[in-house]
Amino acid sequence: MSRAIKIENFDPNGVGVHNGHFIGLPFAEEDAQVIMIPVPWDLTVSSGTGTHTGPENVLKSSYQLDLYDDYLAQAWQMGIYMQEIDQTINASNIKFRPDAEKYIMALESGQEISKELQEEVIQINTACEEMLRLVQSKCAAILEANKCFGIIGGDHSVALAGIKACANKYKAFGILQIDAHMDLRHAYEGFTYSHASIFHNAMQVEQVKKLVQVGIRDYCQEELDFAKEHKQRIVTFTDSNISEQLFTGSTFATVCEQIIDSLPEQVYISFDIDGLMPTYCPNTGTPVPGGISFNHAKYLLKSLVEKGKKIIGFDLCEVAGIGNSYDGNVGARVAYMLCNYMGKSQNLI
Q1: Is domain 3-345 given the CATH code 3.30.565.10 in the classification?
Q2: What is the DSSP string of 170-201?
């Protein structure tokens, strides 16, 4: 059955059918133009756990969403599909997470790190490499089919797979990072691919010409120094900087212009849910006071598209896992918004 026939037979006003598809949409991977890749991974998280079931939570919560988008009314018709959770990745996360927790606990309690724990860190780094290779190959296959991809994490470390996949297709692009944290630490806690090191690793990708960080409000001196060292490539709009502009008479539209003007024409979006105010993500692993609202994020993305920027891929990470229905609901709405605006930027709508 073609996508056109599926659209004709689908009732966008009906009940969200629990058919295993995002928002209960009728599309299969073959006829969808936007494919989401769920990555059940939270191996290196250093605070709240459970993010590995975040993708499942987003999917299950999506059935409660209405399809109408007040900016892109028929966006769903381009076809959106979420792949099934890769159980190989899930099994690896389950296998190595206890070792990671034991190691992190030893660090936090000031214990001497034994040779055994050091060897476990090596195994964990290897597991992370294997996960990233697998996810990158999934992203690459979608791009090769001339379709769009979005990664649904899992912790923020999974974003590197999408960034590297884009680097193999595009000679130059920028990253728009919405986040409470800079994530610029070098191998945080000894984990090469730590969730707190994602953008330190991304900056090693030469095709990434600009990293524009928005909503940042929790960082250390090491990260600040790294950003200053790479000031030609990293632009940071801290939460306090944005707030000060708004408090002294600037509009958020003006702030968005500054953000968008800092980006090249092709943009990868990395959206950590904790970039939003904690009221939208109360159970995420590392919530931080402050942040932007859902509507701030929506306006920023809408403005990005209207300025003619092309969204070449995205990730949404750190959504709390199963048992946190509100977090899942917000996560599903952000995922839908990212899909829609990416589709619009690539003339799929």
Answers
A1: no
A2: -SSEEEEEE-SB----SSGGG-TT-GGGHHHH
